[in-house]
Amino acid sequence: MTVLPQRRHVAVACLFLCCATLGDSVPDPRIRDTLMQLEASMQIGGNLVLSEAERRLGTYIDKLKGEELAQADFPPALHFFKAKPLIRKSPLYSLLQKMPKGGVLHVHDFSLVDVDWLVKNVTYRPYCYICFTYDQSMRFLFSSRLPKPLPQCSPWMLLESLRAKMENATSLDTSIMTNLTLFTEEEPEVVYPSQDVVWKRFEQSFQVIWGLVTYAPVFRDYYYRGLTQFYIDNVMYLELRALLPETYELDGSTHDRTWSLRTYRDITAQFVAEHPDFFGARVIFTVHRGLNESMMTQAVEEAMKMQRDFPEIMAGFDLVGHEDSGRSLWYFRQALSLPAERGVSLPFFFHAGETDLEGTEVDQNLLDALLFNTSRIGHGFALLRHPVAKKLSRERGVAVEVCPISNQVLKLVTDLRNHPAAILMLEGHPLVISPDDPAMFGATGLSYDFYEAFVGFGGHSSHIGTLKELAMNSIRYSSLSPRLQEQALALWQRQWEKFVSEILS
Amino acid sequence: MTVLPQRRHVAVACLFLCCATLGDSVPDPRIRDTLMQLEASMQIGGNLVLSEAERRLGTYIDKLKGEELAQADFPPALHFFKAKPLIRKSPLYSLLQKMPKGGVLHVHDFSLVDVDWLVKNVTYRPYCYICFTYDQSMRFLFSSRLPKPLPQCSPWMLLESLRAKMENATSLDTSIMTNLTLFTEEEPEVVYPSQDVVWKRFEQSFQVIWGLVTYAPVFRDYYYRGLTQFYIDNVMYLELRALLPETYELDGSTHDRTWSLRTYRDITAQFVAEHPDFFGARVIFTVHRGLNESMMTQAVEEAMKMQRDFPEIMAGFDLVGHEDSGRSLWYFRQALSLPAERGVSLPFFFHAGETDLEGTEVDQNLLDALLFNTSRIGHGFALLRHPVAKKLSRERGVAVEVCPISNQVLKLVTDLRNHPAAILMLEGHPLVISPDDPAMFGATGLSYDFYEAFVGFGGHSSHIGTLKELAMNSIRYSSLSPRLQEQALALWQRQWEKFVSEILS
Predict the structure, then answer these.
(1) In the Cβ-directed half-sphere of A447, how many Cα atoms lie within 13 Å?
(2) What is the extent of the structural domain holding A135?
(3) Which residues of chain A from 235 to 254 reach within 8 Å of chain B, CB to CB?
(4) Residue A456 lies in a domain
(5) Total structural domains within chain B
(6) Which of B202, B237, B253 is the last residue in one of the domains?
(7) Residues A175-201: pLDDT tens digits?
(8) What is the value of pTM for the model shown?
(9) ipTM for the complex?
């Protein structure tokens, strides 16, 4: 099997001792070279031993990256909504699409699939009702009869009839699409002037999507299509942050949370059977950090039960929603301590440090996530500002799920070259690249985020080793058991070798 | 004497071992508190033991900072040219002006004094000639007779006669002022759209100033006035990056480099005699990194000679100019190795890492500065991107001279909250705050940069301990001998205690 890279801590320590004794003499070019190599070896992928073929592909990739870096309109410096058409044209992006990227460890259940499909397929299904809210948004519901009106909303209208009455249904479809995603062709800085505004629109879009994707037949199709989109983007494994909602049928009858979980399990199995080079998917059950304490306790109880009953598909538990305005992990400490108190396993995968509110209560989430023994850190945007948390994360191999486009669209960083993960990558911190909510940002799959990380954070320093280690990290830091990790890595390795030889030929 | 703060490396190591054994149990609030305190203690000033009076002052400072942080137009997020009037109105800025800040370790010889004084005093002296260059700039020369014309320039005109002929001399004075500084009331992003544009204007302004400040009588007055401005701003010591130019008299006769050095020595002595609470100044001889190799060798030879002949005033040697377009330290390795080869002492204080060209040749300057045993690092903006250089800098106590406003005006960072030194401060990296070229940026003294560092980098985390340690660092990392450092620190301590009690009363 493939040997995972090891870091040279001991070598580093020795070299510092050597250098400390240098001082007043003329610099020795050999020591200079050694230190430069040491620094290069510390970064992600800097320590991998590459094959002859990989080195040749690396030269080609360096050339492509050089062309990206020489562009006047450098995509990682632009807002993704403006960068997207430039990235799509880039030969490096095409190569990254073809590259087997391993797993996606941070992606949310209802932002997997292009909203285009939701509009053109889902909203054209029969029995789809629409209503317009008083705050210029909309809601959807599938029903075999006219549903009861919602508060603060127009009466429900059958979308099919509404479209039939309109001269031009395209403008309605465009309006629906706009409501389902943050993506816009207008000036993003003007449409979303602040974090509060963009987060409000972000959470509102999920409310618009809700009635579409919790309709049981759509729920199934949506997930299948999500797997397909990642599969096409050469992702072989998913860990899905999932709200596991109650779903409904046309007659108004409902399915509970475990139905959603079983559906994920069964459709994953079907998809793997149909696509043997896809490895699978697991679910991280998520609840909103706006819950009160007793609701959180109940959610943790449910999570422990599902973890016991569905150990293959259930990976663990997490909280979602805007950290800055939500409740902190420490606020929920009693509920979150339940599994440990009872000696029950419930792995945590906490979002933490998705904030620039340095020094506040919310900013303690990073340390608290680690104290609650989180398996990974979602985002960790603020990690550099917490040297103790950073050190704990590194020493304990708690990987950071870095989501470049998400952090830019949700206004934590403007120019992606300044993303703190640029430093983490150079330090060889355990991390993976993830898309968070691709459909919400107008992205698809993982390749756009890989592009931003490789070209934007990576700059001149990143190379084929970076790409290879990032892909391997997504297996190594997954929730899979060591035995399954070994299988996944072997599968990935075969795909990787095929990719290297195909690109070279 | 005052005990300088020590960092708790051993405590940190132990705690990590403790925590590593934690894991599946419920988090212990005492360990949480300890880790939070540990993190707080790591930052600059986090480990100082404060007196009762200092703690009371600290509470007042926290309140003032809270008011700054609550502002809609948050000054550190704005370009300094726009932030300046807001900062001037801030009660926290007034307090920082009064605070004894210790030494300024990174400031350049010809950007010490408000350009207002150059225009209203210097250009109104007799025998001041002006000419207008073909590229819309100007040059000055004092002369007892009409000087020979410069190439690419209008004929010389006596400024006094020109002013007499003009209906409104104010517009000429405004135009002169604009040429002497980067500061503008227009939109800075429009006037200076790129690093290349702003650096070109920056270096051009020094050419405009040149003829004024190298006139021997002005050279003396300018330095005296520079000391006065820093003294008024409660700075007690300077290390001046100085080009030590040839100076001239009205009759065209000239003085050599050692005349400039002796002038600095004598005027410093005079100033200290007149102001016993000012500690002194030393000179770091600087040459432009655009020199060729043989000129650099000659400059290093001269520097060694001056270091031998004027050991009290000479602190060492450095290169200046735009790193990105200039030659690298490694390019000059033979010249820079001369002192070590000859066993002669010539301390280096290299500018390094004042760049965002990550991964290029220029970006190796940081490591090379350390290999050449630099005493401090000028700027070190790129240090986070070089984990090996960062570790060497920390372990060997090679302090970084952080220049917030300079880095913003010269376009390495937009929002000062994102300056990499924010991280270095939280990690307790050895560093000092410096103004670089205050007059060029429309600043005066050190207090504006202290404001940006304390409020911008510091955010919610910084406190009175931060301010105290930053001031003490400026003595601890100075070029002064241990004996003189002790004296300077004792003098600073008396000023500090007076400041604390005066503000409290």
Answers:
(1) 22
(2) 116-202
(3) none
(4) yes
(5) 3
(6) B202
(7) 999 999 999 999 999 999 999 999 999
(8) 0.92
(9) 0.89
